[in-house]
Structures are given as structure tokens and as C-alpha cells.
Amino acid sequence: MIGNVYSTICPGCNFGCGLYIRENGELEVDFRKSSPANAGKLCRFGMSLPRFYTPARSIVDGRETTLDEAAKEAAKRISSTKGSVAFLSLGNTTCEEHLAFQKLAESFGSLYTGVELGALPGDVHQTLSVGIPYSEIEAAKHIVLFIDPYEQYPLIVRRLLLAKKKGAKITSIWWKDMPLADENLRPADTSKLQLTGDSLIIADFHPLSDTEQVKSLLALAKNAGAKITFLKPFVNSTGAYILSMDAKQKSLAQLIEDINKGTIKTLFCLESDILELMPEAIAKLTNLIVQTGQESAITKKAHIVIAHEPLYKKRGTLINNEGRAQAPGGAGTGGLEALGTIAGTKFDFDSLHESVKKMIGITAVDEFTVPAYERPTYAAPRATAKPPDAKILLASVYNPFMWSGLADDNDFVELSLNMVRALKLLKGGTVKINYNGSLLEKKFKVAPVQDNVLLTGKRIGIEKGAITPVEVSR
């Protein structure tokens, strides 16, 4: 930090894009060309950060209060419901805060990191946790995409284009055609995929990933001798996965099940807005406690809000998808102190920081160096992934706007011209979508999409899954 300017990391995803945030009455975003992850380039989410960082206020049952009082009240409610408390941290905070939060969870309840690592073989956890350096993507000869790079991880597009310039072939396995792909296949057509030892598979791993699909991708890579890397949606996903690798943790699906069964009555969310991912379950909680630096959809529903500094003002460590150790930019430890108040102890930053460095295997935080992570070999997992057989599917494309709760202008669904003609939809009109018993009317856009699929970049039917069978009409 220099004056009112913070050298920080974009919280949109785990790509690790560096930027400057300037406090000048209103927040302003400036490019940071020295950043090794993005060399100054930003996606539309990064340029939207001033909208994202709306300061939260500490609240107890609708009454504004101080951070300390909110933390003390949270401690009382957690203690009174011990045994039915869940702690959720998706990876949107520093390694030091996540580690303290993990210690808190071990004392009072269960830790939920959102991902279902326990359902996957232990020998693949490191492969899922730490991706390959972006320079290896640029050097790849054959790249296979199981993501929409434009919508989900926009800054990787530059790396893909550089690889193409060097002669790489790009194959897309997706619901719609990708402009940069030399070959477009659909998710049901993986049998047509020709992989070699020169191939690189790029997928993503997030709280709503289908574990059988993840196993299938790992098996594809293993059997062909190909490389594989998983991108992730939260600013410190990699850090959270590494720190929690040996901890007892549960998935988002398990959390929803536990709340619905009534075994979880109090949920403590650390910098994790999951309201629209599980709206029905959230409503059943006796206590919803949220610790965060910015206002979001979930703070408006919480019984207790513990409001501290935003990410760019925090002191600590972040780990991007390559495994680079990065600094969020500030000197604040308010979030860590609040966790100490709840735990009834003091969490010392320096001790936690040393533990983080030891677990990562570094001696100093240096964003210009990718540590030499051990990448053990793994056996090809057995998988039983099956493509959906419903007539029409609604596929949710996860992107930074969806995961962060930030409003997005792209409020429409994409569908093929054949479907538009079959439904006799009118230009500039809407399409009616009946999903999970609810009826929704949305604007539409014609795109090179698989004929029986609607694509959405908004949260629609997600609590029931990423791929939702629907009925559509004019």
C-alpha cells in the first residue's frame, strides 16, 4: 500500500489477477502491468470491482452494532448450538484467516469447504488443488477445454491465443461452439476425443462439480498420459484446498442435506455468499452468521453480520491457481481478531503466517515465483459419469458474477436457432422456462448452442444441480 493506493488481487476467481485499487472518494481500479498472472489485463468483473466492494455493517438481529459486539454474540450462539454448527469457507479470504477458521471449526462443528474432496481418491487431491503454471498452457501442443473460457475465466483466453499462435490445436468439449477452437465437440462426444501425451486438459473444480465427471476427466488424462489442470472460482481456492487437504471437510451438497435434515441449525459463513446457491436451505437455519468485508445478498438475510476490512485491506497470503503466493495488499487483521473473539483465544498472525508458509513449502511470499509443488502420480479413477438424458436441459455456466453475488448485465439465456424456430419464438421476445416446479420468463439470445440445451450465466435452479431438466415454451 502506498498512500491511498493498494496493490492487490482481484477476488473474481483464482486466476490471481493483479491490480491497483485507489481510494479516491470512490473506489477506482487501475491496471498493474507487473502482475505475472495477467500482465495488467482485466476482465469485465475486475473492472466492476468498485461495485463489488460495498462496505458491510456489523449487525445483530437487524440492529447495527460494533464488530466486537457482533463477534461476542456470534460466540454465544455458536456455543449454545454446539454439535449442530457448520463452518463454511469457500476460499474467499486469506490463508491465515482460513487456517484460524479451520481451527475454530475443529473446536465447535464441521468444516465445509464447498468441494467434495472426500468423494475423490486421495492421490488426486494435489492435482485438483494446484494447477499448472500458465506458461505451460502457452507451450501446449493440444489443448482440450471443458470450460467456457470467455464466460468463466476470461484471462486464460490470452494464454490460449498465444498457444494457438505457436501452433497449438484447441478442442472444445462444451455445450456451444467456441470461436477460438479448431474442433468443437459436445459433452456427450468424449469418445471422439483423441488425446496423446502432448495433450493438456483444462477443466474447473468448484462446489457444484459432479465428482463422477471429475473422475472421468482425471481418467482421460491418466490413460492418455496427458496433462490436466483445474481452474477454480474463488480468489484463494488453491490456498484453502492445500490448508484443508488433511482436515475433515464436507461438501456444499452435504451442507444442504444436513440443514434440510435439521442436524445443522447454525451456519457460520466466512467471506462466502451462498444464499442463491441454497436459498431453501438457508431459510431453515436458526442462526445465520456471516463474517465479511462487503455487503452482499447473504448479509441482508443474516441474523449476525461481523463486518471487517475488505480483502484488499487485509494482511495475509493468497495462493492463485498456479500456486503463486500473493499478498492481498493491506495491513488489516480485523477479521482474524474477530475469529479470536469467537474462539475465546488470540490468533497470532505471525504464527499463522509461518504455518501457512510451511504448509505451502515457501520461505517468503513472492508472486513472481511458482513454488515447486510435489505432483505425485495417481491411478486412473473409476468413474460412472453419464450424460443427462432429459429432452431439454438448462446448463448453468458458473462465472465470477454468479459466485460473488454481483449483479450482471447478461440476464438472458442462450439457445440454438433450431430451438428458436421449433418454439416459434419472436425476435426481441422471451422464452418461458419451467424448472424445478417454478416458471421463469427470460430474454433469449441465439448462439451456436447444442439444440436441446439452454445456457444461462445467471443463478437458475442451481440448488438442484448445475444441469437441470426443464420444459420450455413461447
TrEMBL record:
| Superkingdom of this protein's organism | Archaea
Pfam families with a match to the protein in the record: Molybdop_Fe4S4
Q: Which UniProt keywords apply?
A: 4Fe-4S, Iron, Iron-sulfur, Metal-binding, Oxidoreductase, Ubiquinone
Q: Which residues form the signal peptide?
A: none
Q: Key word Cell membrane present in the record?
A: no
Gene Ontology biological-process entries: respiratory electron transport chain
Q: Which residues form a coiled coil?
A: none
Entries under Gene3D superfamilies matching the protein: ADC-like domains (2.20.25.90)
Q: Which GO terms describe its molecular function?
A: 4 iron, 4 sulfur cluster binding; metal ion binding; NADH dehydrogenase activity
CDD domains named in the record: Molybdopterin-Binding
User: Keyword Plastid: yes or no?
Assistant: no
Q: What is a single cellular component term in the Gene Ontology annotation?
A: membrane
Residue intervals of the 4Fe-4S Mo/W bis-MGD-type domain: 3-55
Name recorded for this polypeptide: NADH:ubiquinone oxidoreductase chain G-like protein
Organism (species): Candidatus Methanoperedens nitratireducens
